Every structure is written in C-alpha cells, then in structure tokens.
C-alpha cells in the first residue's frame, strides 16, 4: 500500500477516536501508541515502514489516543485516567471487530494495554518503553524526582511547538522538523494535559494480575525512560520475558523499528521472516509535449510561471484520484496508485485540465512490482515501463500495458490495441494499448 490506510472513527461516549486497519490476520495486533499520533505517523516514511512490516505478519490496528492526531481533544478540566484510556481501547477493539488481540503498548500505551489485559481476553501482550509509575516513591526508587518532573512539565508548558520537546524523546533532528512534528501531533494545551496525565499514571498494583504471555522490550540507550523502568514491569508480571533492543528513541518507529520488530515478530508468530518492502502497484508517468521548444519560445520567466500552473493543476487531479506523487520531473510527474482505473481517470482529467493552459500531455501507465528507495521514492521495472510508454505516446495519448488492461477488466476503461513494441532498456516485445474513458 502506497497511501495510508483509510481513517475510521470509533465512538466512546462523546469522544471520536481515529483508527486505521491494514494487513490480514490472524493475529489481530492492536498498536496502543499512547501519546503518539499513529495517523500522522503513516505519513512519515520511516514510521510507515515499521507499520507495514507489522502488517506483513498481522492484521494491524493503529489509533490516535484522545488528544492526539485526528482523535478528539482532551478536556483539560477533566483529563482522562488510565482506566478511561482503557475504555477508549475497548471502543477501538469493538469498532475494528477484534477478539482476543495481541496488544502492543508503547509509551503510556503500556499502562493502557496492561489495564485492558486484566479486563478482557488477550492473546499476547507486548510492552515497549513504558513505565508503571514515573515519580519516585519510598518503595519505588527508580522513578524521577518531583522536582525533575515539575521542570519537564514547565518545559511542555513553555516550549511545546518549538521543536525542543520532541528532541528530548528521540535522537536529535533538525529543529524545523522537530517543530513540525510537535505542532502537527497536538496543541500545546493538549501536550501539557497529556504530560500531567502520564505523570499521574501508577499501575504497579495491577501488574501481578496479568496472566497472558508478555514480552517487555526496552531500548537499551533510551534517552528519557531508562531500561530500569522496563525491568520493573517485567519483574512484576508473572513469567514475563524482558528484552533489550539497540537504540535510544522512546518512540522507536522513526529510527529503530527493525531492532524492535526483530524481537516482537518471533514472539507473536513463532518465526521471523525477511521483510522485503516491495509491492505491486500502478505507475503513471506524464510529460508535457514539446516542452523544450515551448520554453524557448516563452522565455524563462513566462515558462516558469506556466510550469507552476501546470504543476498545481496536475497535483489537484492527483489528489482527487487518490494518487501518491513520487516525484516531479520538471515537465511531468511520476505518480503511484493503489487503484489502476483511478490512475487512468487521473491521467485523462489532467490532460483535459492543462489543455486550458495551452499545454498538451502524453502519459504511460503500467502495473508491476516496485521497491521503496528511501523517503518518497520508488524504483523497479514498473517505473521504467511507465516512463518508456509515456515517451512512446503522442500528444493526448495515454499508453498502457497489457497488465493495465487486465487490472481494469470490468471497469469503464476502454483499450484500443496499438500493436507490439520494443521499449528501450526492457527486453522483449510488449503489447501496447491506448486507454480511453
């Protein structure tokens, strides 16, 4: 899947909770991400890859805790308790049609998952980078002092949205990126309320009541929550297994997803498979006909303005038809689609839209296997195939492969045979069709 899974909403009382489902079970794995927006994480390449890996061996359900991402905000005057958050989890499980799930708790989601596991049947429990209590006590020497927590709470109040809090919890990243992560995940007011809620958590007495198979995993160089917090949880749950994983980020998905999932997958499934982040998808390549002579005739300034309008126009169509922009080539686009017929409708709509600018497009489309190449880039034969078909097309033509024709069987798309062709760099002869609506 190239685009994030569809956002659904579960209702608990007057609160609406955003969740997403991807992959196929069994098992059903519910990721209880805590103070971390999973819906926004799907838009970040590294985090999304971690989710895709989990969905390769389970039906994965991710959701935004109250106060985060697309879920409803928290009322600061009535902040939820851990039991309220467990009630929210019950609503998610019911809405997703899950029974006997694997719960994967992260951050304060560890406490939420633990509470749920004492109420309902759970197949397995995975608890990562969590705490039973944050503040030190006479019978709990591993916690933070009250003064330290007061100081951190003040930083949330004074600095959230400036990029300074995010880098406490994760490996340092550019301030602008950290600032964007904070501002898009939740507001300053909500962040302060969530911090106080997390500070008040105390599930120590509940842990011995957990009877399901439990894996407690902690990053060995965790910057904020030291491994001693995880060891305490594992020692308090009967027969729980404790594992250290390399890494330092509290929210592990960005930098340490493989290190954590390498431990989680065999615990959940009994084996660990090689994860190949490849997929079969539809690639659309577009190009402006006669762009070079047009640019020469218009001059740099007018051509730049025209290209900007072209890009804006085509991007509107890409968004309207559910495409994923891989790259802009200067005078065209490479776009990926989960839906092949949508790629053809997008290409035709783009051709009609830019005609009003005095431009003519040609395009090629192919269905095949691609590999992810870092952030926002794809490679593979399907990419080259679509590009070669586009280069072969005339103005106003959308050329398609036989794989596209088969994928659109039963749709409104019509295909006209354009014979066979040799495509540069691709061995053999290939059937070529012109796709029309």
Structure description:
It is a single chain. The chain is of the alpha/beta class and 437 residues long. The protein is 38% helix and 24% strand. The protein is built from 15 helices and 16 strands. The strands form two sheets. An eight-stranded mixed sheet has the order 1-2-4-3-5-6-7-8, with helices on both faces. It is elongated. The two termini are 25 Å apart.
Name given to the CATH homologous superfamily of the largest domain: Alpha/Beta hydrolase fold, catalytic domain
Low-confidence runs (pLDDT<50, min 5 residues)? none
Rg, nearest Å = 25 Å
Largest sheet: 8 strands, mixed
CATH architecture of the largest domain: 3-Layer(aba) Sandwich
- Strand fraction equals 15-25%
- Number of beta strands: 16
Shape verdict: elongated
Number of helices: 15
CATH fold-level topology of the largest domain: Rossmann fold
Task: Describe the strand arrangement of the main beta sheet, using strand numbers.
Answer: 1-2-4-3-5-6-7-8
Query: Span between N and C termini?
Result: 25 Å
Helix content: 25-40%
Which CATH first-tier class of the largest domain would you pick?
Alpha Beta
Based on helices, strands and strand pairing, what is the structural class? alpha/beta
What count of domains describes the coordinates?
A: 2
Mean pLDDT, all residues = 89
């Amino acid at each position: 899947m190239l685009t994030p899974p569809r956002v659904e909403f579960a209702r608990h009382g007057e609160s609406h909770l955003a969740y997403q489902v991807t992959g196929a079970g069994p098992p059903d794995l519910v990721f209880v991400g805590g103070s971390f927006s999973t819906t926004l994480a799907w838009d970040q390449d590294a985090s999304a890859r971690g989710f895709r890996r989990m969905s390769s061996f389970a039906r994965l359900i991710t959701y935004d805790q109250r106060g985060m991402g697309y879920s409803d905000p928290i009322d600061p005057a009535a902040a939820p308790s851990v039991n309220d958050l467990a009630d929210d989890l019950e609503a998610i499980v019911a809405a997703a049609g899950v029974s006997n799930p694997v719960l994967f708790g992260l951050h304060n989601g560890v406490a939420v998952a633990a509470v749920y596991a004492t109420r309902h049947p759970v197949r397995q429990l995975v608890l990562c980078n969590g705490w039973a209590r944050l503040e030190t006590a006479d019978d709990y020497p591993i916690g933070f002092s009250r003064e330290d927590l007061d100081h951190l709470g003040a930083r949330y109040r004074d600095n959230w949205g400036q990029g300074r809090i995010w880098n406490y919890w994760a490996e340092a990243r550019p301030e602008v990126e950290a600032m964007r992560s904070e501002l898009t995940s939740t507001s300053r007011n909500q962040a302060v309320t969530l911090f106080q809620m997390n500070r008040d958590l105390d599930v120590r007495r509940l842990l011995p009541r957990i009877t399901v198979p439990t894996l407690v995993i902690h990053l060995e160089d965790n910057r904020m929550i030291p491994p001693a917090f995880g060891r305490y949880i594992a020692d308090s749950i009967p027969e729980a297994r404790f594992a250290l994983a390399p890494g330092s980020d509290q929210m592990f998905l960005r930098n340490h997803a493989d290190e954590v999932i390498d431990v989680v997958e065999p615990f959940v499934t009994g084996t660990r498979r090689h994860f190949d982040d490849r997929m079969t998808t539809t690639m659309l390549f577009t190009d402006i006909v006669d762009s070079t002579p047009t640019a020469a005739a218009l001059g740099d300034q007018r051509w730049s303005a025209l290209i900007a309008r072209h890009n804006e126009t085509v991007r509107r169509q890409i968004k309207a038809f559910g495409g994923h922009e891989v790259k802009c080539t200067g005078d065209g686009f490479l776009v990926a689609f989960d839906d092949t017929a949508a790629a053809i409708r997008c290409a035709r709509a783009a051709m009609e839209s830019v005609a009003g600018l005095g431009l003519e497009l040609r395009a090629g489309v192919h269905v095949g296997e691609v590999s992810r190449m870092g952030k926002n880039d794809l490679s593979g034969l399907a990419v080259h195939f679509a590009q070669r078909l586009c280069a072969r097309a005339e103005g106003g033509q959308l050329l398609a492969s036989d794989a596209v024709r088969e994928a659109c069987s039963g749709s409104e798309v019509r295909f006209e045979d354009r014979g066979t062709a040799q495509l540069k760099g691709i061995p053999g002869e290939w059937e070529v069709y012109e796709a029309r609506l």
